[in-house]
Amino acid sequence: MPHLYKEQGYVLYPNFFEKEELTHLHKICEAFHSQWLVNNNQAYTNGALNSNGLTASTYLTTTDQLFLIQFISQPKLEKIVSQLFPEKAIFLNTQLFFDPFDANQKNYWHRDMQYTGLTIEEQQACLTTQNVIHFRIPLKPELGLELIPGTHKAWDTDEVFETRMGKNGRLSSDALNNSVSLKPDVGDLLVFSANMVHRGLYGNDRFAFDIIFCDDSVAFKAFINPMHQPTKALLLQLTNKHLF
């Protein structure tokens, strides 16, 4: 599997989890989401598609925080992390993806790095030197993601750049050539590079939990929120602290 990720920028692991393994995770995510909607209703109605920071104490009990931290650091996930990252990796954040309030809202091609404040030249420079990887865990059957294989290590063609940046009459929702659509089911694990060109496929009441890992480097320290990391008290209860 690592060789597939290296070549195409993503790997789908079918039936990675028993569905029973996800039952409590699903309940925690639903509890988080219901509270998030109460406090972020305007953002949701204005087009928000995801929330983050599930591991913080904002909406969860300490018991549920511990469950999430243990889930994130479980050995079978850490094994994949160690296989895919060239050097040591650490936990960056969590995200929860859902459908937009407006069913007609269009999805959009992007690379995550375009929202970090880096210039285009800086994005090009760090494309093959910095690693951020999503571990997507669908909690409901979903329409999935559309990806452009290989773009985790190759810069945009003119068409791709103009599309994702909305230039020269193109829209970020326009179709692109050479794309692959992936439709993970409950129990599957989809691993993909945040650096690659991709877009979410809305609909089917999507509800997916993402764990995000990054290089253990100075470049990413500014993006790590201490509130999203386990407290010292929680760390003491972990048998596997390697990713924090």
From TrEMBL:
This is Phytanoyl-CoA dioxygenase family protein. Gene3D superfamilies: q2cbj1_9rhob like domain. Keywords: Dioxygenase, Oxidoreductase. Pfam families: PhyH. Its cofactor is Fe(2+). SUPFAM superfamilies: Clavaminate synthase-like. The keyword Oxidoreductase applies.
